[in-house]
Amino acid sequence: MHDQDMEPGEECAGCGVGGRREFLREAAGLLLGALAGLGLSPERANAFPVELGTAPIPLGAELMLPIPAQDGAVVYKEQSLIVARYAGAVYAFSLACPHQRTALRWLEGDGRFQCPKHKSKYRPDGVFISGRATRGMDRFAVRREGARVAVDLSRLFREDRDRDAWKAAMVPLNEK
What we know:
By secondary structure, the chain is of the alpha+beta class. The protein has two helices and twelve strands, in the order H-E-E-E-E-E-E-E-E-E-E-E-H-E.
């Protein structure tokens, strides 16, 4: 059974991502939800905007990307990457849910990321809230370069394997 054949709320039998097309469909779903306006409440509809970005071709494994000007996120679907600014810090996440690699979506009314397959929930900083996943969203190593953030696509940290590196994989914005 394919996801498009299932009723809303019904769980899949295989739970795996069926390839590039399905992944891109899931990423498009994330983007459509995000473009509806991302806020922590209806009054703050533009408080956490999410947009689609086009990343430059990386030199090696590193991407140089602009820091979002306000709390919000940019989705780079070709790199399966989310760059988010939240509560005074910048993070770079894998777009894939750590449970079974499905593209995450932003739920505007709830102020969180969520996996559409099994409903694992995450705060905007990638911290795990609840669901079938057992850890936070995977974070890439990042560092600040002026008004940009350098994202090292070769260094992805899992909270359950290297908690200290996972916690450090962020750029505080109060430091230059």
